[in-house]
Input
Amino acid sequence: MHPLPEAGRPLLAASGRLPGRRLLLPRGPYQGGRTGLSGAVRGICPRQGRGPGGGVGIFPESPPFSGGASGSGKKTGGSRPRDPATGAGNLRTKAKEGPLIKYGIFGDIHGNLEAFEAVLSDMEDQGVTHPLCLGDLVGYGANPVECVEVVQALKCPVVRGNHDDFVTHGKSPVSFSEAATVSLEYARRQMSPSQLNFLRRLPLVYAEDPFTLVHATLDGPDQWGYISTRLEAQTCLFYQKTPLCFVGHTHRPCAFAQEKEVRPLEFRQVDVHPDRTKAGRRFLFNVGSVGQPRDGDWRASYAIYSTKEEQVDLRRVNYDIEKASHKILKSGLPESLAKRLFRGE
Output
C-alpha cells in the first residue's frame, strides 16, 4: 500500500523536478495536416517553451515549476499559488481566464497510431484544451515510436503505464502473454535511448486540483492491479485525495462514485458539479483504451472533463482499423494482435 504524499511533493517520481504543463501543442511546422492536437501526428515538433504550470509529479524535459492549476493567479483554499504566466494563442488565454477548460483524458494507446490520430482529431473538434495521458504508450501496436513522439509533442501530464515500465527494463513479467512479450521486444528495438529514458522517468501518479491521474490503482500504483469491481474501486478511492480520479489499464471504461458507500455509475455523461452532488462525494473514472479496447467495442475510447459544465463524458471514436491491423501484420507482430482489434478485446 502506498499512501499519497503531501501536496507539493513529487508523487512516486524519479527525481524532484516538477512538471510544466501547456494547453495544446507547441506551435510549430506541422506538415500536411491540421494544426492543433491532430496536427501532431503528421508533423512532430520539438518540445519548446513553457506553459502554465500544473500539479504534483514529474514531467521529463520540462523546466521546474512552482504553482498550481492554471487560473486567475490567486490562492484558493490553501492550494499553491496559481501560475499567472501567459502563453501563445487564444485557447491558452481563454483557459487561463477560466470560462472553459476541457480536459481530454486518454491512455492505453499501445502503438496504435491510427486510433490515436482519430482521438486527437475528435478532441480538437470537441474543443479540448488540456490533454492528459494515462500511460501505456507502447506494446501491441505497430507504431510505438510515433505514438511516443506525439505524446512528447503534446507536452501534457503523462503517467507511466505497466508496458511503459516493462519496455525500459529489458524484460517482460512472467504474467505477460507471448504476444505481449513479443510486442514489447519489438517496441524496445524500435525506440531510441532518449525515448526509453522519457518513459523511464514518467511518474506513477500525477495530481492537481481537482483530479488525480494513475494508470492502474492508487493503493499500489507500481503493482499494476485492476479496478473492475466495487471492492477494487473502494480500495482505490480510500487513497484518493481529490474529487476526481482517472485511471486506465483494464481497457474497459467504467465509473464509480463514493458517498457513504461506493456504487458503480453508468458512464456516459456524469455530473460532477460540487453544488449538484453531495458534499464529500468522490468519483473514479476508467476512460478505457485508445488503441486496444476490451469491452466488445472496437472504437477508440477516451473521456472529456469540462470545468464549465462540471461533467465527465465518455467518447467513442471510429478509426481506420483496417490500416492499423495491416500494419501489425506487416511489422511481423503476432497475427492475434491484429485480429483482436476487430473484436474489441
Q: What stands out?
A: The chain has ten helices and eleven strands. The chain has one domain: 101-343.
